[in-house]
């Protein structure tokens, strides 16, 4: 039914084409020069001054896969550089990378940077990964330097070629993807060891459980024996594999890859006689971005140094063109009426939810090239929630927290209700657009409860706590005003004024009904809508008063007959302040905020909003349809 979105062979080929072919001219910038550039980069970063760097005018700057203007994001909050510096130099490809630590608003974290130079020695690519793991930062600082074997120049007759270095390294990803216990893992050196966030996770005698699991045996094994258990099979795809920095002299490679965990693998294979359930962290589709360094001995993987951070599921790498495999429905699927009326649109919501629950999108009248996004990320129809959704509250049934709305003029229907994926609850917002009797767009936003449970539940060290967390407790009945309210015009300008107010921290110019109430992540503060927008209450708007732009504003539906609008926006929180910040405010963040509005007589009378954490600078694949 589906073909892989990204083939490892293509990735390898691309890598060889890009980085593997020998360049005849003598390198202009050698190891000393490249390491000097990295030092200059880190100094400029921690002193918040990008003008000190020699960059091209169109330099591509990324943080955790988000494209940002150079000088924003971490550039505003980075503090002192740490002692630990592990550099990788590739004069031939004009690339330098480092694994190091910095402080971010005073907290020491792991920082990976890669600089790419053009022919003239100007920086034209800056890729960074920020792994917000203070434990890892502290461990690196305690290590002070990489193990000596990483930094040795390997005698020329003991080296393998650039192409071989990349090919051997790629076997690691091929082996981990869908981790087959019967695979050939002889590409590991028998004495191979791996660090994860500066913690040794092979041949470890501590007896600590591995990752999010309870398993205490896995980390006691060596690299090869670990892969032979098949334990890592929950990594369902490893795409956007890149090997940009090949340090031939040291026989080392600094690689980057995107690890998808689509949530379909439900048990961990037995490691010591007993299989165990998959940790709740993997209840939902997850994507992790990995920066991973490999040191080879002969042609085997001898040392691995990895760091991870989480990005929204399906997140595309800014450095790789990735093709989506589009699902088209079987020819025998009946189309919707050419013009789908309100009743038809409400029906469409149920039909799509049912198809998600049965994990069978092929039964739907999908348009050719139907677009599907999850939390702003374009993914294949059939991926993500289509595989993990196990329950949903249906509009019109006995379920209390669910509603659907329709706008026949734009052939749009939306849903707002509760989802369950395996054991993880969420609030699900969905927009469906019908065109000529086919489903053209399906857009879902799922705000999952992530804060509770054993070993941190599904919450990770990869995102900071929110000002207002939703712990998954029942949200009660969706206020009947949404379901039984009277007609009212729901002009886009009304919602846009509201977003302006959210951005300005001011209710001036926003039409609120006097009795308007608002709830964020299920919590109702005893403060009216206007006062909240003015910044009053403990966590105004479920956020705080250091947020700046409210962008990628989108009105998903305006259902005038029911006087309801659904909208979503990205709210930036650069974490810049002259005074010390609470834990919830320290990290540059973007909050994705789907909001359901009840409008009465042209004024906002009720707001039901959710707040979802996203990496700073996150953009929706849909852009915006309201003016910021
Ligand atoms: C930028 O380029 C100039 C001229 O080549 C050089 O003098 C300077 O050291 C460079 N600065 C950095 C930070 O590399
Ligand atoms: C610091 O490093 C030493 C070895 O150099 C080790 O024994 C100790 O456990 C480390 N401490 C921490 C907190 O990681
Ligand atoms: C494996 O399981 C056995 C029996 O349950 C136990 O005695 C042994 O300690 C376990 N091994 C490890 C490495 O935990
Ligand atoms: C891990 O152990 C805890 C405590 O015994 C248990 O509650 C939890 O369900 C276990 N988790 C998994 C994934 O096995
Ligand atoms: C529609 O066609 C597909 C493939 O041609 C087939 O598998 C499926 O059973 C058909 N469905 C119906 C309802 O006839
Ligand atoms: C899938 O659809 C998108 C637009 O919806 C299009 O850009 C892309 O090329 C299609 N992919 C394939 C493999 O046809
Ligand atoms: C999810 O992963 C499973 C196991 O690897 C695989 O069979 C399935 O095709 C994947 N789903 C998608 C949509 O790629
Ligand atoms: C789905 O949720 C409904 C109501 O919330 C509940 O009655 C039903 O038992 C659930 N079904 C499953 C399979 O969990
Ligand atoms: C709010 O922000 C908008 C756009 O940024 C601006 O045009 C407007 O004047 C501001 N309103 C107030 C009351 O500050
Ligand atoms: C933000 O809120 C804090 C705490 O309520 C307050 O002390 C501070 O003055 C506010 N800052 C702004 C810019 O409104």
Automatic annotation (TrEMBL):
> What residue stretch is flagged as signal peptide?
1-25
* Key words, A-Z: Signal
Check the record and name the InterPro entries matching this protein: DUF8021
Pfam families per the UniProt record, alphabetical: DUF8021
Location of the DUF8021 domain: 158-306, 494-610
Stated name of the protein: DUF8021 domain-containing protein
Species of provenance = Thyridium curvatum
List the lineage, top down. Answer: Eukaryota, Fungi, Dikarya, Ascomycota, Pezizomycotina
């Amino acid at each position: 039914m589906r073909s892989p979105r990204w083939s490892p062979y293509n990735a390898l080929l691309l890598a060889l084409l890009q980085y593997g072919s020998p360049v005849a001219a003598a390198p202009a910038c050698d190891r000393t020069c490249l390491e000097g550039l990295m030092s200059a980069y880190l100094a400029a970063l921690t002193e918040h001054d990008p003008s000190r760097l020699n960059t091209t005018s169109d330099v591509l700057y990324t943080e955790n896969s988000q494209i940002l203007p150079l000088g924003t994001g971490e550039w505003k909050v980075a503090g002192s550089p740490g002692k630990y510096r592990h550099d990788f130099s590739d004069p031939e490809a004009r690339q330098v990378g480092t694994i190091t630590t910095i402080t971010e608003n005073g907290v020491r974290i792991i920082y990976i940077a890669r600089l790419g130079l053009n022919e003239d020695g100007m920086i034209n690519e800056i890729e960074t990964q920020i792994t917000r793991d203070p434990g890892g930062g502290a461990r690196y600082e305690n290590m002070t330097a990489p193990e000596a074997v990483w930094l040795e120049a390997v005698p020329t007759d003991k080296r393998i070629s650039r192409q071989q270095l990349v090919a051997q390294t790629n076997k690691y990803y091929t082996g981990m993807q869908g981790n087959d216990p019967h695979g050939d893992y002889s590409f590991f050196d028998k004495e191979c060891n791996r660090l994860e966030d500066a913690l040794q996770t092979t041949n470890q005698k501590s007896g600590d459980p591995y990752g999010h699991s309870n398993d205490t045996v896995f980390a006691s094994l060596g690299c090869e024996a670990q892969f032979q258990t098949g334990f890592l099979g929950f990594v369902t795809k490893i795409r956007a594999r890149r090997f940009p920095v090949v340090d031939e002299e040291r026989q080392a490679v600094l690689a980057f890859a995107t690890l998808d965990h689509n949530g379909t693998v439900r048990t961990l294979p037995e490691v010591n006689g007993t299989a165990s359930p998959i940790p709740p962290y993997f209840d939902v589709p997850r994507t992790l971005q990995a920066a991973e360094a490999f040191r080879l001995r002969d042609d085997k993987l001898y040392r691995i140094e990895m760091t991870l951070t989480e990005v929204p599921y399906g997140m595309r790498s800014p450095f790789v063109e990735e093709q989506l495999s589009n699902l088209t429905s079987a020819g025998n699927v009946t189309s919707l009426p050419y013009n789908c009326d309100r009743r038809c649109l409400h029906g469409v919501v149920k039909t799509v939810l049912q198809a998600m629950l049965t994990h069978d999108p092929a039964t739907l009248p999908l348009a050719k090239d139907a677009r599907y996004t999850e939390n702003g990320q374009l993914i294949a129809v059939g991926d993500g929630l289509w595989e993990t959704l196990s329950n949903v509250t249906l509009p019109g049934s006995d379920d209390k927290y669910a509603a659907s709305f329709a706008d026949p003029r734009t052939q749009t229907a939306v849903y707002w209700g509760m989802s369950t994926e395996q054991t993880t609850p969420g609030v699900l917002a969905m927009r469906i657009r019908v065109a000529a009797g086919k489903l053209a767009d399906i857009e879902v936003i799922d705000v999952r409860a992530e804060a509770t449970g054993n070993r941190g539940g599904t919450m990770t060290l990869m995102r900071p706590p929110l000002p207002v967390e939703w712990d998954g407790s029942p949200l009660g009945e969706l206020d009947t005003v949404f379901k039984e309210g009277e007609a009212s015009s729901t002009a886009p300008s009304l919602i846009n004024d509201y977003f302006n107010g959210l951005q300005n921290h001011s209710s001036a110019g926003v039409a609120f009904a006097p009795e308007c109430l608002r709830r964020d992540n299920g919590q109702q503060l005893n403060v009216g809508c206007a006062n909240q927008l003015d910044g009053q209450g403990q966590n105004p708007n479920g956020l705080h008063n250091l947020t700046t732009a409210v962008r990628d504003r989108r009105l998903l539906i305006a259902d005038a007959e029911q006087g309801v609008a659904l909208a979503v926006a990205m709210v930036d929180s650069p974490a810049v302040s002259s005074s010390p910040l609470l834990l919830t405010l320290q990290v540059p963040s973007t909050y994705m905020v789907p909001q359901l509005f009840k409008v009465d007589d042209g004024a906002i009378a009720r707001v039901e909003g959710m707040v979802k954490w996203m990496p700073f600078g996150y953009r929706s694949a849909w852009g915006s349809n309201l003016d910021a």
